[in-house]
Amino acid sequence: MQPYELSLTAAADAVRARKLSPVELVDSVLGRVEEVEPRLGAYVTITAERARGAAREAERDVVAGRLRGLLHGIPMGLKDLVDVAGMATAAGSRVRGEHRAERDGTVAARLAAAGAILVGKTHTHEFAYGLTTPQTSNAWGRDRVAGGSSGGSAVAVAAGAATFALGTDTGGSIRVPSALNGVVGLKPTYGLVSRHGVTSLSWSLDHVGPITRTVEDAALVLDVLAAHDPRDPASLAAPSADRRPGPGTDLTGLRVAVPDNYYFDHVAPEIESAVRHAIDHLESLGARLVEVEIPMARYIHATQWGLMVPEATAYHERTLRAVPELYQADVRILLEAGELMPAGDYLRAQRSRTLMRRAWARVLEDVDVIAAPTVPATAVKAGQSTLTWSDGTVEGVSDAYVRLSAPANITGVPSLSVPVGHDTAGLPIGMQLLGRPLGEAVLLRVGHAYEQTRPARELATA
């Protein structure tokens, strides 16, 4: 096994035990970047020399017994929305071509303090306003979409071109590309991870979180990221906690909710079969399955778009009027549509969210985890704009991909996407676990138990 193939946890253990040098690890990952980047296009910027210099420094610290944290010497990618001092944060757009960050965003600073090493900035759909990341190819098929908007981060991790990466999630943008590329994606509780120094799409829906190869890896990164930050108005004063799952896989007594509406409507048969099989596996580990009804399901789509569209337009108001020609057509159309939305619609969406949060809280009083598909279809071919379901219903690709992930953004509950197999075309399938606010430890425990008792996953080879 090459160092770039190691999970974060395995690599960190090897570095701490002095069985693997940070220099060897970073060189291996950079070699993998050189190999796959021409085919996949995960990165907008590669910081090879910076990474090698940081690896040499990390190696000196290891020899001297000065480990900086759990991520010491671990190579990572950051979505091109996260500020890093002296580097461009273009957000995938010509609008931001001249922007240079003066200081690190909070998450970048926390990762650096823990010893993580930046390999580069990963591609995002322009301003995170899309579900495909057209600059990047899927790690399992170059003719397939990567998913978005954190497509570059998910592809880099899936292909071994980063040991872990950060993404952002406003309507599914961590979980969607994670599911489509066969990796783990965690959207934490709203406010648990600071967004200071991260370009916003929709301030009341935005989240920052890790994309990793294993659930345990996600827990390691989350423990570094989660902390109160007074510079983020939504930041929670949550107590520090070790969320890493233990070695056990016994889920006896855990109540896993299986939705009888919404989450399995208009879902590809292979995805439904794989997810239901995974849920049955949780039952075999001791979990008790409970059928639940997802509340206010008919309002989810309208609420998500009713919040996101006007907030995004407000954020871009000045540049949209000054340089509209610099935006990609798909993003510009959405931003212009936001200018046509009445204030009353936005207020109704806010009220709907309040009612939805209350209703979801009641559901989660009686269960520990909700299990469902992450996305209703595997990665579509690049350029495909619609999906046609068996009953003749036609749905836009972006609407389809956001449909099952949006509830966690609206309500702010944590959501973890875990790979649960592949379809007959060899494309990955993801299962989504949702829990109570600040209930990440439970999600990680369940996801880890599933992962530990299923066949080991391999890196993508596209």
UniProtKB/TrEMBL annotation:
Domain of life per record: Bacteria
All residue ranges annotated as the Amidase domain in the record: 24-444
SUPFAM superfamilies reported in the protein's UniProt record: Amidase signature (AS) enzymes
Matching InterPro entries: Amidase, Amidase_CS, Amidase_dom, AS_sf
PROSITE patterns, alphabetized: AMIDASES
UniProt-recorded name of the protein: Amidase
Record organism: Actinomadura sediminis
